[in-house]
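User: quick one
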Amino acid sequence: MKKRSNGKMKLAQFEAYLWMLPTLALISIFVLFPVLESVYMSFSKVSKAGFIKSFGTLENYQYVFKQPVFPRVILNTVVWTVVIVLISLVISIMLAVVLNERFALRRFTRTMLLFPWATSGFITACVWKYALDYQYGSLNALLVRTGIVQKNINFLGNADSAFAWLIFVGVFVTVPFMTFTLLSGLQSISIDYYEAATIDGANFWDKLFKITLPLLRPAINVTVVLNVIYCFNSFVFVHTITGGAPAHRTDTIMTYLYWMAFSKNNYGPASAISVIGFIVLLFFSVIYMNIQMKEETT
Amino acid sequence: MSAKPSKPMKIALYAISIVTCAVILYPYVVMFFSSVKDINEIYRIPGTIWPEHWNLSNYITVWQHIPLLYYFRNSAIVAFGATAVSICCAIPTGYALARMNFPGKKGFMQFIIITQMFAPVVLLVGIYRVMLTFSLTNNLFGLILLVAAFNQAFSAWLLSGTFATISHELEEAATIDGCNRVQAVIRVIIPLAAPGIATAVIHAFIGAWNEYTLTLVLISDTFKKSLNVGIRAFFGYTNVEWWYVFTCSLLTTVPILLLFQFVDKHIVGGLTAGGVKG
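Assistant: Done. Structure below.
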């Protein structure tokens, strides 16, 4: 932009905010305001009907940390986020490398990968809830009818196996997005590197570990941080498939927060959980922002 | 990568692709087969894989059990409304971010990135209270604004990236021809940025069409629910009417998947823009 006189510069500064006014209004009212409201409520006494009685108490936080299930919920959230992102990353790198090659099924597979991403999370959750059902589930039908197992397996019967299947569903919905971000990273790697490596006699694995993965590093960083945030925020799969059962042992912070607020009408402690969630998200947002801003400047 | 994959490499490529497609297709096949089974077949142990009777009448009778037409209408209102609001707000913001320098620009961009990280779920209690305060619960218009607000970060960021790639000269030429800035944006920038805008539109639309959590919490009036939340009517206390759950699921999903076949290119562009560039 050209340098202008001082008076005009001031007008131009004002103008930018005018252009952004609709966005600013939307975000302030519907994102910022709820954040402030949650923080305020988390430090207030709130009645079951949702009236704020008095401000300035740590009771809500004490209540949350005193819940016997809370450590389990935190642990679940960490396991849920870390395990889904790690497994998805390995699968996605593999799929991205595969889809970067030319072969007949490439286009079809790419199109298929868009399906889970375009389907509503709730519907995906419904299908897997049905597929994994102990008595009537389609996965049991498939396994029994093909003779792989003798009688139905209770996939969601205990907390550990239920949680493992929830993680499977999490991976199912995470892989498509990750694969596409990594694929675009791969496509920006110059083919010259591979040609030079081929002349030097490098095999497939040499190229993967010495060229592809190091050069893919920036794309991997971004997608890992983004997906950590998405998984942490994920709600509908756990909520629909197990609803936290048995006894909150498959709950994550988000589903526990929902239960606390809308099943128990305990708005105070629920806001305290919200605030704990923000702090974690803010931490990851700062990491993501640093990566982003670095990319912008380079 | 290399020009010609070797033979074992080719086998691996096909094997991985086939397994991936099978796993992805499985739930959709289950959805379709289960949607045409009747109550006796769904509740048989062990279940059937292939439907014994193709009970296509489920697709007709389902309309008598829930107000499906309303749900289609409401989902469409929210999806079109939120997309329109979101894009109309994000275009000027994206333009300002791409073309103007202003004090606090870096801070504003960081703020936008942070808001992108907050999914509605973590703010649910706060959102619910704010919507109550404005009497916007049970209100599709309120839902439209809310969904658009949560989409702002993505759309504005994506559009600012698109606008930044358009040459300044064309805009200056328009200014010389007597356009003011707003006219220049409408006549020059928007037509040139059409592919980027299309990507933003598709993402906003799909996100809004598939919205679930906010609708679940904010809409309690039966006739104002969306397709996704309306399906919950088939989840009873003791059993689930799976055949209807899946007829509705398919009716909800198929339009979007059909749309996909036409706009494939734009979607992938947006996915990668969202992941790698913000």
